[in-house]
Structures are given as structure tokens and as C-alpha cells.
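Suppose a colleague, Dr. K., hands you the sequence of a protein chain of 146 amino acids and asks what its three-dimensional shape might be. Before reaching for any lab equipment, you can write down a predicted structure in C-alpha cell form. Begin with the sequence itself:
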Amino acid sequence: MLLELLSELFRPPYDVYQVIMIALILLLWVYTVAMVSYVFRRLLFNREIKRFFVEHRVKTGMVMQYEIIDGETYTTISPAIPGMSSILVPKAHQTPDQFAIVLECRDAGVRFHAKYKIPSSDYKKHKKGATVRIEDDWTPIGFQVL
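The predicted structure, expressed as C-alpha cells, is then:
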């Protein structure tokens, strides 16, 4: 059934609707491949980060810099008066900012920069160049071997 539908769709001569359908199918295919590729790369990157930090369990590091990762802004549309109005009103929402710290660490002769996601209460708690203890609630989000 599906093969018959596809053979009918891709059989020349093409009319406007067939061209539009072919373009939409190709766009859907490209989008699907891009999303699967992105998810796969993200999973591999997260696995690599976890493996690196399991192998190099450091307890302290020297503060290199602090970073603010801006929250995402998105818009939703809802009725002006719920259940009674057909007038739609856009509402802007923003996810909270994320804070990160970059530390220079050493473990078994390996020198690297470790990036951790930290709570807002720890943001700029220590000065640059200070040696800090890595807290249990800090989440590793990246590294760079020097």
C-alpha cells in the first residue's frame, strides 16, 4: 500500500501538489537525519564527559573563570479569558540562567580545564586563581586537556 502510494507520487509528469509533497518528504527526511545525528552526538559527548570525570576524580581545582549560560526564552499563546474568550494572547517565558565555573585541575600528571554547572549561590563565591574544593552538587559539563 505504501509502496503504491510512493510510486504514484514519484511517477512523472509532476503536478504542483506532487512537487510540494516531494519537497515536504525530503525536508522531513533531512530534519529527521539531522535530529538523530544531533541526539547521537550529544549522547556520545555526555558519555565521554562522564567517563573522563570517572577516570580523573579530582577534589580541588584553581578557579579560571565563571560563566553565565543565558536561559532560553520561548512564547506560548493562551486565551485572554480561559474558557470564555477566543482572543489569543502571547505570553513570554524564560528558563532560569545557568551558572558555570571553569577550574584548572591536575590528576596523575594530566592537566586539564574542567567545566562544572554550579548553583547560583556558588557563583563568584571565590576569586580567580583561588583553589577551591569541588562540591558534590556541581555537575561536570565539559573538559579540555591541556
